[in-house]
Structures are given as C-alpha cells and as structure tokens.
Specification:
By secondary structure, the protein is α/β, with parallel strands linked by helices. The protein has a single domain (3-102), classed as 3-Layer(aba) Sandwich (Glutaredoxin). The chain contains 4 helices and 5 strands; from the N terminus they run E-H-E-H-E-H-E-E-H. The protein has helices at residues 10-15, 30-42, 60-65, 92-102; strands at 3-4, 19-25, 50-55, 73-78, 81-86. Strands 1-3-2-4-5 form a 5-stranded mixed sheet, with helices on one face. It starts with a strand and ends with a helix. This is Thioredoxin family protein. It comes from Neolewinella lacunae. InterPro entries: Thioredoxin-like_sf (IPR036249).
Length: 103
Amino acid sequence: MLETIDDQNIGPLLASEGLTVLLMSSPWDGNGIILRSIIVGLTERFPGVHFREAAYETSPRLARLFNLTSPPGLLLIVDGELVERLTKPVSAGKIVELIQNLI
C-alpha cells in the first residue's frame, strides 16, 4: 500500500532523505490507475525507497510545486529535490531503470 500525502504534509516530503517516488493521479485517470498498480508492485522490490501517492485535484500546492499541469505525474524526488518528472504513460521496466539509477 502507498502512503497518501496531500498539501498538508509537503514539509516531510521535502525533508525526506533518499529517493521518494510520488504518484499524483486522479480516480478517473486510467493511466494513473495503471501507474499505481505498477508502483504498488515495486514497493517490495525496493524497500529503501519511499513510495507515496497524492490526489491531483486535492493537492494543488503539490502540483504547482512540481509543475504538474495534469495527471498522472510520476515524480522522482531525491533528498527533497525533483530529479525526474514523467507525465506520459511509462512501462514498469522504465520505472525500474530510473529507480535503480537513483539509488
């Protein structure tokens, strides 16, 4: 299961050490649903990575902070700094490759 965050807990997200993978999506977004299932499947494979999710519509500050104009967005954040933003459908293999390159 992914930990859910919102605009109220941006501080801990930015203070987090190491790699955080943040999925911002909407319940109506088919690509976000697919990405969520991929991310949930990776949580056990990468136990040292922080996996989080946020609802795009209810987290406008997060969306603005990471310059995300529409869902879904997969954000890879290292030590509180955005290092990769994916806004299009992406394969599980590509996500694994990005994570492996950042840990």
